[in-house]
Design goal:
five-stranded antiparallel beta sheet, mainly beta, Neuraminidase, 3 helices, about 5% helix, globular, 6-blade_b-propeller_TolB-like
Amino acid sequence: MSKASKSWAGAFLAAAVVGSLTATVIPAQAGTRAASAAHPPKAAPVVVASGLHNPRGVTVQPDGSVLVAEAGSGPATPCTASPGAITRCLGFTGSLYRVKGSRQSRVVTGLPSQLIYRTDGSSLVTGALRSEAGRNGAYRVVYGLSGLPADRAALGAGSGPLGTLSTARGKVLGDLAGHEARHDPDSVTGNNEVFSNPADFARDGRDFLVTDAGANDLIRVHPDGTTTTEFVFPNNVLPAASPAVQPLTPAGQAQAVPTGIVRGRDGAFYISDMSALRQGLGRVWRYVPGSTPTVFATGLTDVIDLALAPDGDLIALSYNTGTSTAPLPGALTRINKRTGALTPIDTGNRLTVPLGVAVGPRGDIYVTNNALGTSGELLKFPAR
Protein backbone atom coordinates (compact mmCIF):
# COMPACT_ATOMS: atom_id res chain seq x y z
CA MET A 1 0.00 0.00 0.00
CA SER A 2 1.25 3.44 -0.82
CA LYS A 3 3.38 5.49 1.54
CA ALA A 4 1.89 8.71 0.27
CA SER A 5 -1.75 7.91 0.87
CA LYS A 6 -2.49 6.21 4.14
CA SER A 7 -4.12 2.85 3.62
CA TRP A 8 -7.38 2.28 5.43
CA ALA A 9 -6.27 -1.26 6.21
CA GLY A 10 -3.07 -0.09 7.83
CA ALA A 11 -4.86 2.64 9.70
CA PHE A 12 -7.45 0.26 11.03
CA LEU A 13 -4.97 -2.27 12.31
CA ALA A 14 -2.88 0.45 13.86
CA ALA A 15 -5.65 2.33 15.58
CA ALA A 16 -8.87 0.44 14.95
CA VAL A 17 -10.71 3.41 13.56
CA VAL A 18 -13.15 3.10 10.71
CA GLY A 19 -12.96 6.76 9.71
CA SER A 20 -14.83 7.63 6.54
CA LEU A 21 -15.21 4.09 5.22
CA THR A 22 -18.60 3.14 3.94
CA ALA A 23 -19.64 -0.28 5.22
CA THR A 24 -22.55 -1.74 3.31
CA VAL A 25 -25.06 -3.92 5.09
CA ILE A 26 -25.27 -7.13 3.10
CA PRO A 27 -26.61 -10.61 3.76
CA ALA A 28 -24.22 -13.40 4.56
CA GLN A 29 -22.42 -14.85 1.56
CA ALA A 30 -24.23 -17.57 -0.32
CA GLY A 31 -21.77 -20.17 0.86
CA THR A 32 -22.09 -19.25 4.52
CA ARG A 33 -23.43 -21.91 6.83
CA ALA A 34 -26.48 -20.74 8.73
CA ALA A 35 -25.76 -19.47 12.22
CA SER A 36 -27.46 -21.23 15.08
CA ALA A 37 -29.32 -19.53 17.89
CA ALA A 38 -27.37 -17.23 20.15
CA HIS A 39 -25.04 -18.98 22.55
CA PRO A 40 -26.27 -18.70 26.14
CA PRO A 41 -24.92 -15.52 27.75
CA LYS A 42 -21.88 -15.80 29.89
CA ALA A 43 -21.74 -14.30 33.35
CA ALA A 44 -21.30 -10.52 33.46
CA PRO A 45 -17.76 -9.56 32.46
CA VAL A 46 -15.18 -8.80 35.10
CA VAL A 47 -12.77 -5.88 34.64
CA VAL A 48 -9.44 -7.59 35.30
CA ALA A 49 -7.23 -4.57 34.56
CA SER A 50 -7.85 -0.93 33.66
CA GLY A 51 -5.81 2.09 32.66
CA LEU A 52 -4.10 0.14 29.88
CA HIS A 53 -2.30 2.12 27.17
CA ASN A 54 -3.71 1.26 23.75
CA PRO A 55 -4.02 -2.45 24.61
CA ARG A 56 -3.91 -4.82 21.67
CA GLY A 57 -3.41 -8.60 21.66
CA VAL A 58 -3.94 -10.74 24.74
CA THR A 59 -2.33 -14.15 25.31
CA VAL A 60 -2.96 -16.76 28.00
CA GLN A 61 0.40 -18.30 28.88
CA PRO A 62 0.95 -21.97 29.81
CA ASP A 63 1.34 -20.98 33.49
CA GLY A 64 -2.12 -19.40 33.47
CA SER A 65 -0.91 -15.80 33.40
CA VAL A 66 -2.44 -13.36 30.94
CA LEU A 67 -0.17 -11.14 28.87
CA VAL A 68 -1.40 -7.96 27.17
CA ALA A 69 0.60 -6.05 24.56
CA GLU A 70 0.25 -2.27 25.02
CA ALA A 71 1.06 -0.18 21.96
CA GLY A 72 1.75 2.76 24.28
CA SER A 73 1.02 6.40 23.63
CA GLY A 74 3.81 7.43 21.29
CA PRO A 75 6.35 9.96 22.57
CA ALA A 76 6.08 11.45 26.04
CA THR A 77 5.48 14.81 24.36
CA PRO A 78 3.38 14.45 21.21
CA CYS A 79 4.91 15.69 17.99
CA THR A 80 3.34 18.51 16.00
CA ALA A 81 1.19 17.60 13.04
CA SER A 82 1.91 19.14 9.64
CA PRO A 83 -1.38 20.06 7.90
CA GLY A 84 -2.01 17.94 4.83
CA ALA A 85 0.93 15.62 5.47
CA ILE A 86 1.62 12.39 7.33
CA THR A 87 3.68 13.06 10.45
CA ARG A 88 5.31 10.29 12.45
CA CYS A 89 7.14 10.48 15.75
CA LEU A 90 8.64 7.87 18.04
CA GLY A 91 8.43 7.29 21.75
CA PHE A 92 9.15 4.42 24.10
CA THR A 93 5.91 4.10 26.00
CA GLY A 94 4.95 0.60 24.85
CA SER A 95 4.85 -2.22 27.38
CA LEU A 96 3.77 -5.75 28.22
CA TYR A 97 1.22 -6.05 31.01
CA ARG A 98 1.00 -9.33 32.93
CA VAL A 99 -1.79 -10.60 35.14
CA LYS A 100 -1.37 -13.69 37.30
CA GLY A 101 -3.92 -14.25 39.99
CA SER A 102 -4.17 -11.14 42.14
CA ARG A 103 -0.83 -9.80 40.92
CA GLN A 104 -0.57 -7.55 37.89
CA SER A 105 2.06 -5.18 36.57
CA ARG A 106 4.00 -4.10 33.51
CA VAL A 107 6.75 -6.68 33.22
CA VAL A 108 8.39 -4.95 30.23
CA THR A 109 8.41 -1.21 29.58
CA GLY A 110 10.14 1.15 27.15
CA LEU A 111 9.03 -0.57 23.95
CA PRO A 112 8.90 1.54 20.77
CA SER A 113 5.60 3.32 20.21
CA GLN A 114 4.79 5.32 17.09
CA LEU A 115 2.35 8.23 16.92
CA ILE A 116 1.07 8.98 13.43
CA TYR A 117 -0.85 12.05 12.34
CA ARG A 118 -2.72 11.41 9.12
CA THR A 119 -3.43 13.88 6.34
CA ASP A 120 -6.98 14.43 7.63
CA GLY A 121 -5.61 15.53 11.01
CA SER A 122 -6.59 12.40 12.92
CA SER A 123 -3.96 10.45 14.84
CA LEU A 124 -3.22 6.85 15.65
CA VAL A 125 -0.74 4.88 17.74
CA THR A 126 0.97 1.66 16.76
CA GLY A 127 3.59 -0.46 18.45
CA ALA A 128 3.44 -3.80 20.26
CA LEU A 129 0.45 -5.77 18.94
CA ARG A 130 0.91 -9.30 20.26
CA SER A 131 3.37 -10.95 22.62
CA GLU A 132 4.23 -14.26 24.17
CA ALA A 133 6.61 -15.37 26.87
CA GLY A 134 9.66 -17.37 25.90
CA ARG A 135 12.23 -19.15 28.02
CA ASN A 136 14.30 -17.50 30.72
CA GLY A 137 12.04 -14.49 31.05
CA ALA A 138 12.30 -13.48 27.40
CA TYR A 139 9.34 -12.21 25.41
CA ARG A 140 8.57 -12.17 21.68
CA VAL A 141 6.58 -9.29 20.23
CA VAL A 142 5.08 -8.47 16.84
CA TYR A 143 4.99 -4.74 16.09
CA GLY A 144 2.81 -2.74 13.74
CA LEU A 145 4.29 -0.12 11.44
CA SER A 146 1.76 1.25 8.92
CA GLY A 147 4.44 1.90 6.36
CA LEU A 148 7.73 0.65 4.98
CA PRO A 149 11.35 0.41 6.19
CA ALA A 150 12.07 3.96 5.00
CA ASP A 151 9.30 5.27 7.27
CA ARG A 152 10.76 3.30 10.15
CA ALA A 153 14.30 4.52 9.54
CA ALA A 154 13.14 8.13 9.44
CA LEU A 155 11.93 7.79 13.04
CA GLY A 156 15.51 7.47 14.26
CA ALA A 157 17.30 5.37 16.84
CA GLY A 158 15.24 2.68 18.56
CA SER A 159 12.64 2.30 15.82
CA GLY A 160 14.10 -0.95 14.48
CA PRO A 161 11.50 -3.35 15.96
CA LEU A 162 8.53 -1.63 14.28
CA GLY A 163 7.17 -3.77 11.46
CA THR A 164 9.00 -6.85 12.73
CA LEU A 165 8.75 -9.90 14.93
CA SER A 166 11.35 -9.23 17.63
CA THR A 167 12.30 -10.04 21.18
CA ALA A 168 11.30 -7.46 23.77
CA ARG A 169 15.00 -6.71 24.16
CA GLY A 170 15.13 -5.52 20.56
CA LYS A 171 16.58 -8.46 18.62
CA VAL A 172 14.79 -8.68 15.27
CA LEU A 173 13.68 -12.22 14.52
CA GLY A 174 12.07 -11.39 11.18
CA ASP A 175 11.57 -8.12 9.28
CA LEU A 176 8.08 -8.22 7.79
CA ALA A 177 8.18 -4.65 6.50
CA GLY A 178 11.45 -5.45 4.75
CA HIS A 179 9.82 -8.50 3.20
CA GLU A 180 7.00 -6.37 1.80
CA ALA A 181 9.40 -3.75 0.45
CA ARG A 182 11.47 -6.39 -1.36
CA HIS A 183 8.71 -8.59 -2.73
CA ASP A 184 5.25 -6.91 -2.55
CA PRO A 185 3.66 -10.39 -2.80
CA ASP A 186 0.06 -9.23 -3.16
CA SER A 187 0.80 -7.37 -6.39
CA VAL A 188 -0.33 -10.59 -8.10
CA THR A 189 -3.87 -9.84 -6.92
CA GLY A 190 -3.83 -6.42 -8.57
CA ASN A 191 -3.33 -4.43 -5.37
CA ASN A 192 -1.00 -1.72 -6.63
CA GLU A 193 0.36 -0.62 -3.29
CA VAL A 194 3.39 -1.48 -1.17
CA PHE A 195 2.61 -1.26 2.54
CA SER A 196 3.23 -3.32 5.68
CA ASN A 197 1.40 -3.63 8.97
CA PRO A 198 2.06 -6.96 10.74
CA ALA A 199 -0.80 -8.12 12.92
CA ASP A 200 -0.30 -11.49 14.66
CA PHE A 201 1.97 -14.52 14.83
CA ALA A 202 1.99 -18.21 15.73
CA ARG A 203 4.74 -20.75 16.13
CA ASP A 204 5.20 -23.55 13.59
CA GLY A 205 7.99 -25.78 14.80
CA ARG A 206 11.13 -23.65 14.87
CA ASP A 207 9.53 -21.11 12.53
CA PHE A 208 6.89 -18.46 13.05
CA LEU A 209 3.95 -17.60 10.81
CA VAL A 210 3.04 -13.91 10.77
CA THR A 211 0.00 -12.21 9.26
CA ASP A 212 0.63 -8.87 7.58
CA ALA A 213 -2.67 -7.00 7.36
CA GLY A 214 -1.25 -4.28 5.16
CA ALA A 215 0.52 -6.64 2.77
CA ASN A 216 -2.33 -9.20 2.62
CA ASP A 217 -0.06 -12.16 3.11
CA LEU A 218 1.16 -14.82 5.52
CA ILE A 219 4.92 -14.76 6.03
CA ARG A 220 7.14 -17.51 7.40
CA VAL A 221 9.99 -16.38 9.63
CA HIS A 222 12.86 -18.87 9.76
CA PRO A 223 15.28 -19.33 12.67
CA ASP A 224 18.04 -17.51 10.79
CA GLY A 225 15.84 -14.43 10.37
CA THR A 226 15.06 -14.94 6.70
CA THR A 227 11.46 -14.63 5.53
CA THR A 228 9.46 -16.33 2.81
CA THR A 229 5.94 -15.76 1.52
CA GLU A 230 3.76 -18.60 2.74
CA PHE A 231 0.50 -17.48 1.18
CA VAL A 232 -1.06 -14.44 -0.49
CA PHE A 233 -4.69 -13.94 0.54
CA PRO A 234 -6.91 -13.36 -2.49
CA ASN A 235 -9.13 -10.33 -2.61
CA ASN A 236 -12.76 -10.83 -1.71
CA VAL A 237 -15.56 -10.04 -4.14
CA LEU A 238 -17.82 -7.14 -3.23
CA PRO A 239 -21.60 -7.36 -3.68
CA ALA A 240 -22.95 -5.77 -6.83
CA ALA A 241 -23.25 -1.97 -6.78
CA SER A 242 -21.01 -1.64 -3.72
CA PRO A 243 -19.09 1.65 -3.50
CA ALA A 244 -15.36 1.43 -4.15
CA VAL A 245 -13.18 0.66 -1.16
CA GLN A 246 -9.68 1.52 -2.39
CA PRO A 247 -8.56 3.22 -5.58
CA LEU A 248 -5.58 0.90 -6.00
CA THR A 249 -7.58 -2.32 -5.70
CA PRO A 250 -9.30 -3.92 -8.71
CA ALA A 251 -12.89 -2.77 -9.22
CA GLY A 252 -15.46 -4.86 -7.41
CA GLN A 253 -12.89 -6.36 -5.06
CA ALA A 254 -11.80 -5.83 -1.46
CA GLN A 255 -8.40 -6.56 0.01
CA ALA A 256 -8.35 -9.49 2.45
CA VAL A 257 -6.61 -7.79 5.40
CA PRO A 258 -5.56 -10.90 7.39
CA THR A 259 -5.55 -10.44 11.15
CA GLY A 260 -5.61 -13.19 13.80
CA ILE A 261 -3.90 -16.56 13.55
CA VAL A 262 -4.24 -19.54 15.88
CA ARG A 263 -3.34 -23.20 15.65
CA GLY A 264 -6.29 -25.57 16.01
CA ARG A 265 -6.51 -28.89 17.79
CA ASP A 266 -6.26 -30.56 14.38
CA GLY A 267 -2.82 -29.02 13.77
CA ALA A 268 -4.07 -26.65 11.09
CA PHE A 269 -3.72 -22.88 11.36
CA TYR A 270 -6.85 -20.75 11.28
CA ILE A 271 -6.55 -17.18 10.05
CA SER A 272 -9.16 -14.43 10.03
CA ASP A 273 -9.53 -11.70 7.44
CA MET A 274 -11.52 -8.48 7.50
CA SER A 275 -12.36 -8.16 3.80
CA ALA A 276 -12.81 -4.39 3.71
CA LEU A 277 -14.89 -3.98 6.85
CA ARG A 278 -18.07 -5.04 5.08
CA GLN A 279 -20.79 -6.75 7.07
CA GLY A 280 -20.78 -10.47 6.43
CA LEU A 281 -17.73 -10.51 4.15
CA GLY A 282 -15.15 -11.58 6.74
CA ARG A 283 -13.62 -15.02 6.32
CA VAL A 284 -11.68 -17.57 8.35
CA TRP A 285 -9.11 -19.62 6.45
CA ARG A 286 -7.83 -23.09 7.32
CA TYR A 287 -4.20 -23.70 6.44
CA VAL A 288 -2.16 -26.88 6.69
CA PRO A 289 1.47 -26.01 5.87
CA GLY A 290 2.42 -27.41 2.50
CA SER A 291 -1.12 -27.34 1.16
CA THR A 292 -3.39 -24.69 -0.34
CA PRO A 293 -5.41 -22.72 2.27
CA THR A 294 -9.17 -23.05 2.08
CA VAL A 295 -12.01 -20.89 3.38
CA PHE A 296 -13.36 -22.53 6.54
CA ALA A 297 -16.01 -20.02 7.64
CA THR A 298 -17.72 -16.99 6.10
CA GLY A 299 -20.38 -14.50 7.08
CA LEU A 300 -18.32 -12.69 9.73
CA THR A 301 -17.83 -8.96 10.18
CA ASP A 302 -14.56 -7.12 10.93
CA VAL A 303 -12.80 -10.01 12.70
CA ILE A 304 -9.74 -8.52 14.35
CA ASP A 305 -8.60 -11.60 16.30
CA LEU A 306 -9.09 -15.35 16.82
CA ALA A 307 -8.66 -17.63 19.81
CA LEU A 308 -9.02 -21.35 20.50
CA ALA A 309 -11.58 -22.63 22.99
CA PRO A 310 -10.80 -25.68 25.18
CA ASP A 311 -13.19 -27.85 23.14
CA GLY A 312 -11.43 -26.95 19.89
CA ASP A 313 -13.97 -24.44 18.60
CA LEU A 314 -12.73 -21.03 17.46
CA ILE A 315 -13.69 -17.76 19.13
CA ALA A 316 -13.75 -14.79 16.76
CA LEU A 317 -13.62 -11.19 17.95
CA SER A 318 -15.30 -8.58 15.76
CA TYR A 319 -14.17 -5.00 16.21
CA ASN A 320 -17.65 -3.88 15.26
CA THR A 321 -20.85 -5.30 13.81
CA GLY A 322 -22.59 -2.30 12.26
CA THR A 323 -22.03 0.31 9.58
CA SER A 324 -19.46 3.08 9.37
CA THR A 325 -21.96 5.54 10.84
CA ALA A 326 -23.09 3.18 13.60
CA PRO A 327 -20.29 0.61 14.01
CA LEU A 328 -20.77 -0.51 17.60
CA PRO A 329 -20.82 -2.82 19.42
CA GLY A 330 -18.07 -5.37 19.05
CA ALA A 331 -18.94 -9.05 19.15
CA LEU A 332 -17.76 -12.54 19.99
CA THR A 333 -18.70 -15.49 17.80
CA ARG A 334 -18.13 -19.20 18.35
CA ILE A 335 -17.12 -21.10 15.20
CA ASN A 336 -17.79 -24.83 15.23
CA LYS A 337 -14.53 -26.73 14.77
CA ARG A 338 -16.09 -29.27 12.40
CA THR A 339 -18.65 -27.37 10.35
CA GLY A 340 -17.60 -23.72 10.57
CA ALA A 341 -21.12 -22.79 11.74
CA LEU A 342 -21.34 -19.45 13.53
CA THR A 343 -22.95 -19.00 16.93
CA PRO A 344 -23.11 -15.51 18.46
CA ILE A 345 -21.99 -15.21 22.08
CA ASP A 346 -24.09 -12.84 24.16
CA THR A 347 -21.78 -10.19 25.63
CA GLY A 348 -24.51 -7.82 26.75
CA ASN A 349 -23.25 -5.22 24.25
CA ARG A 350 -20.31 -4.67 26.59
CA LEU A 351 -17.65 -4.55 23.87
CA THR A 352 -16.53 -1.12 22.72
CA VAL A 353 -13.44 -0.95 20.51
CA PRO A 354 -12.22 -4.48 21.38
CA LEU A 355 -8.95 -5.52 19.75
CA GLY A 356 -7.65 -8.74 21.28
CA VAL A 357 -9.11 -12.04 22.48
CA ALA A 358 -7.78 -15.13 24.25
CA VAL A 359 -9.38 -18.08 26.01
CA GLY A 360 -8.18 -19.64 29.25
CA PRO A 361 -7.99 -23.40 29.91
CA ARG A 362 -11.38 -23.35 31.70
CA GLY A 363 -13.10 -21.45 28.92
CA ASP A 364 -12.88 -17.93 30.36
CA ILE A 365 -12.72 -15.41 27.50
CA TYR A 366 -10.37 -12.43 27.84
CA VAL A 367 -10.85 -9.33 25.67
CA THR A 368 -8.96 -6.04 25.48
CA ASN A 369 -11.63 -3.36 25.42
CA ASN A 370 -11.76 0.44 25.06
CA ALA A 371 -8.51 -0.17 23.25
CA LEU A 372 -7.86 3.37 21.98
CA GLY A 373 -6.08 5.71 24.35
CA THR A 374 -4.81 5.20 27.88
CA SER A 375 -8.03 4.04 29.56
CA GLY A 376 -8.11 0.57 28.04
CA GLU A 377 -9.23 -2.44 30.00
CA LEU A 378 -8.90 -6.20 30.09
CA LEU A 379 -12.27 -7.92 30.45
CA LYS A 380 -12.89 -11.51 31.46
CA PHE A 381 -16.13 -13.24 30.50
CA PRO A 382 -16.18 -16.16 32.97
CA ALA A 383 -17.10 -19.59 31.70
CA ARG A 384 -20.33 -21.00 33.10
